[in-house]
Write a structure and sequence with these properties.
By secondary structure, the protein is α+β, with helices and mostly antiparallel strands. The protein has 6 helices and 37 strands. It is globular.
Length: 572
Amino acid sequence: MNDSKSRLRVWPAIVILVLMWGVLLGLPRLALETMLHFQGVPLTLLGGTVLFGVWWVFLSRASRRSRWGGAGLFVAGLIALFALSHESMQVAIVLYILPRILTALTLLALLMNAVPKLRTVRVGVVVMLAIMALPLMLRTAPLDGDMQPDFSFRWSSTPVVATIDTPTTPTETEPLIASDGDWTEFRGPQRDSQVHQRIVGTNWNDDPPVELWRTPVGEAWSSMTIVGDFLFTQEQRGDRELVTAYRAATGEPLWADGIQSRFFDPISGAGPRGTPTFADGRLFSITGRGTVLAHDASRGTLLWSHDLMAEYDTPLPDWGFSGSPEIYNDTVIVCVGHPDGVGLAAYDAATGDERWTTEPLTDSYSAPHLVTLHDTPQVIILHGDGVNSHDPVNGSLLWRHDWPVPGTRIVQPALVPGNRLLIGTSFGEGTRLLQIDYDGTSWSTDELWTSRGMKPYYNDFAVYDGHLYGFDTKILSSIDLADGSRDWKRGRYGHGQLLMLADQGVMLVLSEQGDLALVEANPDEFIELARVEVLSGKTWNHPAIVGDVLYVRNDREMAAYRLPRNASTTRP
């Protein structure tokens, strides 16, 4: 934008753009999912934008009116862009739109040099406003695990989710009772993604998994809980966070109940993150905004609730309350995660009365995890400063292991034979194996090894036959539990999830793209036995399995598949 006939000095802007784009494209390849990656990208964008402004105001050779007027228009345009854009675009504007706007403005400056007639304030203002207005027409689906957007026009149709009304007359009146093999909580009865007494056929070309039903669901990254013929999950439907029940055999909706609440973050999208937990005929859940709900599982009747943010004055975590409730006898345990207040809170399962609370914790997206070490039941909670173990009866601290990380821990710990415990995190830190000792009076922890051979982000791992299987960032990996050395790193399933069929030595791997793969739990080599597509679109939700039926969902749909039973081709 220049009233004079002098050419604009553009080469400093080109240098700034080359350096900025070099960092933006290089960091994900050199330091994926480390703090250098997460902090380096926004700092690069901030620094590049400031330098771009310095170039325009002081080095561009544009007229004074063009320089200061253009800078003011740019700032005003950014403010308007954030204020008027679709809610899903807030992060995308910073990470993806802003560098493209700067690139487009540099190309505009080059075009003005090449075509002198365009070198006017009027042309510059019109083109700048057009460039900055284009993102107002867009929205994006939640970013994927690599922080990549999926843009569409703002006015394009969204997936329609059928309304589920709570029945006025409950279809079931008897209390629901769990049986062996039911999937009663997040990642199964032991929260370890281990499946026993299941053998599946591996020749999916001739005998593939068979779809039993499919239904739309509301947005959420929750998994599913299956008890008898009830399937429970959580959903965001408009301005309500709901706990929902379906027929496990048919996908028929049974009941839905929840609260007026909407959780949304511009990276992951809308909806709850936790998974309902079943115990003694009741269903316990936590919404994305931190309300603990207890329902009669068969009828959908609300029994009691607690608003963690209001009662404990705790801040809303960036990605919402994500840890599913844990049950010990008649006690419901949840993570509050207040860095200056309550860490864990426990309630009477029948009445909702508070039983106990613990000292502060840095926030955590990991769920309380019940384990038994040295014949002593205890609740493990991972957090940003390490891992705590608490007595589930009164909440007292049994032991603590310090391992601060620059980010927040998300995945669950894993119990290893010999009173050992695995804890893991991303941000380049890796996985650590602890030896937990108890002399009858006091507890102690000893670090056996720390391995960067597996750096789990929000993808839980599973232990099998002396080895750990899971995702090193977004690539399936195996490491040796003896010393933490990596066996192999293969299989690009994105940020997927897995189930371990422990009696067969194979894994069901649900990819981020919605594919289901059957992979050998073989430390010697990576062997994918079969692969089919079961869902469409980004899939972060953990799968669940009961009998020979696998249940899968994402933020748009849920489906059930009968796995092949012929095991003639399975690995011995």
